[in-house]
Amino acid sequence: MSRRYLLISPCRDEAEFLQTTIDSVARQTVLPAKWLIVDDGSRDDTPKILAAAAAKYPFIEVVRREDRGHRSVGPGVVDAFYFGLSRVELDEYDYLCKFDCDLELSPRYFERVMEHFEDDPWLGTLSGKLYLRIDGRLVPERTGDENSVGPVKFYRVPCFEEIGGFVREVCWDGIDGHMCRLHGWVARSVDEPDLRIVHLRQMGSSHISLWHGRTRWGRGKYFMGSTPAYMAAVSLYRMAERPYVLGGLGILVGYLKAMAQKHPRMEDPRYLECLRRFEREALLFGKRRATERFHERIREQPPKAPHARRRERETVEGG
Prior knowledge:
By secondary structure, this protein is α/β, with parallel strands linked by helices. It folds into two domains: 5-199, Spore Coat Polysaccharide Biosynthesis Protein SpsA, Chain A; 210-298, no CATH class. 45% of the residues lie in helices and 17% in strands. The chain is built from twelve helices and eleven strands. The radius of gyration is 19 Å and the shape is globular. The model is unreliable at 308-319 (pLDDT under 50).
């Protein structure tokens, strides 16, 4: 079975963590067919590190965007991702991964991920779990099981195409999982030794402050379409992690501020119905059981044919 996978990495001012990430990818037991790194206007030593890596590893290609003058998460990251994607022929690959440059992986990470895809024809997107290294030990970042984590979005190409890719807004990395379920694909993350990802920068933080990052997260949840009842539960849940209390409070403040200011929201009625059904079941049964229930219903349908669309195109092109 083909295991051609494409990594696309939006990257800006990542000199502190970048070499660790490059070394992790270079040690993989199955190397990427291509790793396209988009230097999004870096001002530190990132370009030098990337140039050395591209000269050393033939699977690495670096492209550069003009400096926007500031770091832009959410839509900015997705814009940089699509800048890279526009420079490849996606049909040449079986899998696509949006991959951050502040990560440390086990050598078998991508091989193990693809084994999961080969065992599960319903699987659309998958990741391992995120960990922080604190005082010399690994501490899990609390992430739900209902989606692949934002820093390592590994997709079966037909699934990525069917859901329409990523929305250019904060919380794009939550919206995509619900779009997967809407279209009959399984989205999940799993905790296994080979799939533990060391996150070198805490998720939901910001280059400005962690409070700023959490309020931005809450604003993204409003755009995503989450209900006030669900957000109250999310806020309480996140108060139990660093920074204690303030992190969860920041998410709620960001959500309520976006509501008061009538910020834009997702409008697709089918998506909103799917999202809110998931949130209702999560409040009733817990997120893990809600995820299992959704996936059980998906698996009652015939499995997806992962490469059917590609085979149809090849037949037409080949006459």
